[in-house]
Design brief:
This protein is mostly helical and 244 residues long. Helix content is 62%, strand content 11%. A 3-stranded antiparallel β-sheet has the order 1-3-2, with helices on one face. β2 and β3 form a beta hairpin. α5 runs parallel beside α7. It is elongated, with a radius of gyration of 25 Å.
Amino acid sequence: MEKVCRILKSALLILMLAGPVVSAVAQEADMNTETDPGTEDKKKKKGTDADFFDFTIDKLNEKFFSRLAINVLCLFLLVRFIYYRNYRNTEFLFTFFIFNLVIFLITFLLNKVDMSLGAAFGLFAIFSMLRYRTEGITAKEMTYLFVVIAIGLICAVAKGTAVELLLINLMIITAIYLLESSIFFKRESTQLINYENIEMVNTQTREALIEDLKKRTGLNIHRIAILKLDYLRDTAQIKVYFYQ
């Protein structure tokens, strides 16, 4: 029952946030229809109901597959050689690939209905800002999710040649690689530790506590943060910061 309530709340929040954006998209489409004098003639020539049942493929052309190939290549470079290499976490790989693929397909099709890049970005950036209700997601993983969505949008609706799209995506991937590496600054990682010697957890023995944690864990700990003290069990929850 609790999960159902969370799902309903998430759906309601999505509808509330997506409402104004969808309205803006509809107004933009209406304005484009009004300003284009040849729209009615095009509809009469092409038809609406008749074309829907035709056994023809006009959307899946060379442009679609070339943009899809660039999108998949850039996504693979980002997820496999940067995210997975640094964090060794397979939990969000499925989410990254499915989010990117679905958003690429939807935005590519919506781009055929006179919708600008700004309207498409505003429509789908909403979902990247929402946290999952069933499990927590860190700020860095939210950033990767946002980048995955951005790559899908750029490859789907951005104007330019294949080389330009590839260069733009490679610029994003290169920037992430440089920030994740230790070229500009050392990479700092964190770990939670349940410490049983609570007598060492005080301001006067902070250095001795860090040295004890170094010996026990073998990590190059340079600072700590005490998150929780449990005097009934004589334990403390400590967050340690160390350089890899």
